[in-house]
């Protein structure tokens, strides 16, 4: 057959694999994704450009995923070509669909579903650090694939921010970058940690009935749970659909996370402090990511189908939030100075609410 599925058939001997008329689910420059028929059902086939960290992390994460976790099941994987075959999460809507819709109740409910799914993943995978590490090592070969690249990401962000602060004439408070890079140990893998997709954006999930399935584990890592929960506060630091979320809706989702995660840590005073610190870290880290293009001409997303805010609006919003943190005073001072310098340069650019919440704005 000339349908490009011979490699899938080789991984699944005895299973009748075939193409579907409309099989494309998407992908990126790193991978392509398609839905295929398999006997009487369907599967998802993800083919990577190479057997690099993305393939290693996704196959490792799915290989150890507990059956009660809200994530796809690994069916098969191969290195040549680098491929993952997994259970099909279906064609349901995702949280981004709700945020970009016109129903604020549905959007708020979607945030709750996201929080419950993240909490369920954290609860299901807590204590699986060694299994995940072993699964990474079994696939990495001669690559160095860390449990989490967070420490290096924070150090890289500090270097980028230092260069931009110099160019903008922003004096860096003593200890600010030490507080930023120190978040890697303060909110480290030895604390309340779990397996995470790391890029749990509003479009990286699929509704199945009353629940959400989390998809896309290319960035899977083992890290402190506060980094995921802070996605509700920033909001969505690594995502295109990073519109503002009304505080009551975010609080309701945080309450849902605490209820689903269990009381030991999520109901402790440390939980709120850790989420606040992680939100500040995301604000400064994402400023390092997006500031170069925001200082240029802030071009729109390369994919014109994406309804996304400007980088300038989201950076001003995030820095304004980070300047209020009590968890890292020097970092808060830096956020405030950067915010004010960029406000003078760009003028006021408010981050709008997600379209479904616009009536609340």
> Would you state the CATH class?
Alpha Beta
* Shape verdict: globular
Q: In the residues, how many domains can be counted?
A: 1
* CATH architectural type: Alpha-Beta Complex
- Spans with pLDDT under 50 lasting ≥5 residues? none
Structural class: alpha+beta
Number of helices: 13
Fraction of residues in helices?
40-55%
The fraction of residues in strands falls at 5-15%
Order of helices and strands: HEEEHEEHHHHHEEEEHHHHHH
Number of DSSP E strands: 9
List the strand order in the largest sheet.
1-2-3-5-4
What is the name of the CATH superfamily?
Aminoglycoside phosphotransferase (APH), C-terminal lobe
State the end-to-end CA separation.
55 Å
Describe what is shown at a glance.
This protein has helices at 6-11, 53-64, 95-99, 104-125, 129-140, 150-168, 176-186, 226-229, 247-261, 263-266, 269-295, 311-322, 329-346; strands at 17-27, 31-38, 41-48, 74-78, 83-87, 193-196, 205-208, 211-214, 221-224. It is α+β, with helices and mostly antiparallel strands and 361 residues long.
């Amino acid at each position: 057959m000339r349908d490009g599925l011979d490699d899938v058939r080789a991984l699944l001997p005895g299973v009748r694999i075939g193409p579907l008329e409309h099989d494309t689910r998407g992908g990126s420059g790193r991978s392509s994704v398609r839905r295929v028929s398999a006997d009487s059902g369907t599967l998802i086939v993800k083919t990577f450009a190479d057997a690099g960290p993305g393939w290693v992390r996704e196959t490792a994460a799915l290989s150890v995923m507990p059956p009660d976790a809200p994530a796809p099941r690994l069916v098969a994987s191969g290195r040549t070509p680098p491929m993952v075959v997994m259970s099909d999460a279906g064609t349901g809507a995702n949280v981004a669909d709700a945020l970009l819709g016109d129903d604020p109740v549905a959007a708020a409910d979607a945030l709750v579903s996201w929080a419950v799914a993240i909490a369920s993943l954290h609860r299901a995978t807590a204590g699986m650090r060694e299994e995940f590490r072993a699964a990474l090592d079994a696939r990495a070969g001669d690559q160095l694939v860390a449990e989490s690249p967070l420490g290096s990401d924070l150090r890289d962000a500090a270097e980028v921010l230092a260069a931009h602060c110099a160019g903008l004439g922003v004096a860096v408070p003593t200890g600010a970058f030490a507080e930023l890079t120190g978040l890697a140990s303060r909110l480290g893998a030895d604390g309340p940690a779990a397996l995470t997709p790391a890029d749990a954006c509003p479009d990286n999930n699929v509704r199945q009935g009353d629940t959400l399935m989390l998809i896309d584990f290319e960035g899977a890592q083992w890290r402190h749970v506060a980094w995921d929960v802070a996605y509700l506060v920033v909001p969505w630091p690594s995502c295109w659909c990073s519109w503002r979320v009304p505080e009551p809706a975010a609080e309701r989702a945080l309450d849902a996370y605490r209820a689903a995660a269990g009381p030991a840590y999520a109901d402790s005073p440390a939980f709120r402090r850790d989420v606040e610190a992680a939100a500040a870290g995301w604000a400064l880290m994402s400023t390092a990511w997006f500031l170069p293009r925001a200082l240029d001409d802030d071009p729109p997303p390369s994919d014109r189908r994406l309804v996304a805010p400007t980088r300038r609006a989201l950076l001003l919003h995030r820095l304004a939030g980070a300047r209020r943190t009590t968890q890292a005073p020097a970092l808060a001072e830096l956020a405030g100075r950067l915010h004010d310098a960029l406000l003078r340069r760009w003028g006021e650019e408010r981050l709008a609410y997600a379209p479904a919440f616009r009536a609340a704005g």
